[in-house]
Design brief:
Helices cover 65% and strands 3% of the residues. Helix 2 packs antiparallel against helix 5. Strand 1 and strand 2 form a beta hairpin. With 231 residues, the protein is mostly helical. The chain has a two-stranded antiparallel ribbon. The longest helix has 36 residues.
């Protein structure tokens, strides 16, 4: 899970650099220039359409952060179960259901060579990280994932707004990805200031969700406590 948190921070830094650039463009404290054939630089007037496009691109960056962070975190849970050789019988009922659902999607030809000890190998054998979310993750999906695994989705509302803006981010991202709207259309109705606020809330929300998952893993909350107490 530590690699997930490190990757998250690196992506956040990348996003912060982009938003800092976008903010300076909006404040007209930065200029774009090109190098001419004679070696002189020529300033390029900031085109309003370009700024709209850059604002719209913010939704792609934020959505990328959301989906990659959650995919990596769920993968980390399965990696932990695999590395610790946790048996199917010892995990909580929520995970047993996920394991069975994953297993039902696989053909025997693709599974038999992965399984040596069915009690432990069954958990990871059916898991495929590339199937997670696939362009459709918002606050509701994260809450659903939390319930499915049994980790907390509680966050500090004053900092995160509980991920309320994730639905808009997902919809804008999908409109762009599927060509339903142009970048200029997406970017024209939102200000840089509004985007900065959304960015801070999303980062705070994801950070707290990832910390919840980290606590879930380190505390071995994936285990069936009734099994432990009966020993």
């Amino acid at each position: 899970m530590q690699t997930v948190l490190i990757d998250f921070q690196e992506r956040v830094e990348e996003i912060n650099r982009y938003f800092a650039f976008l903010e300076k463009l909006g404040q007209e404290t930065i200029q774009l220039s090109v190098l001419k054939d004679d070696g002189q630089r020529e300033n390029i007037p900031l085109d309003s359409q370009l700024i709209k496009t850059l604002k719209a691109n913010s939704f792609l960056l934020l959505y990328n952060l959301v989906e990659s962070s959650m995919r990596n975190a769920v993968t980390a849970i399965f990696d932990e179960l695999k590395n610790q050789r946790v048996s199917y019988n010892s995990v909580r009922i929520e995970i047993k259901k996920i394991v069975i659902q994953n297993f039902k999607k696989r053909s025997p030809e693709n599974l038999h060579f992965k399984i040596k000890d069915i009690s432990t190998d069954i958990i990871a054998a059916g898991f495929q990280s590339q199937e997670l979310f696939s362009g459709n993750i918002d606050q509701r999906e994260i809450s659903k994932t939390a319930r499915n695994f049994g980790f907390s989705f509680n966050t500090e509302y004053n900092k995160t707004k509980h991920g309320e803006s994730l639905d808009m981010i997902m919809n804008k991202r999908n409109d762009l990805a599927h060509g339903n709207k142009s970048f200029a259309e997406i970017g024209k109705d939102i200000t840089v200031e509004e985007l900065l606020k959304i960015k801070e809330e999303v980062i705070a929300y994801l950070e707290q969700i990832l910390n919840n998952i980290n606590q879930y893993i380190t505390g071995q909350d994936y285990l069936d406590r009734s099994q432990i107490n009966d020993r």
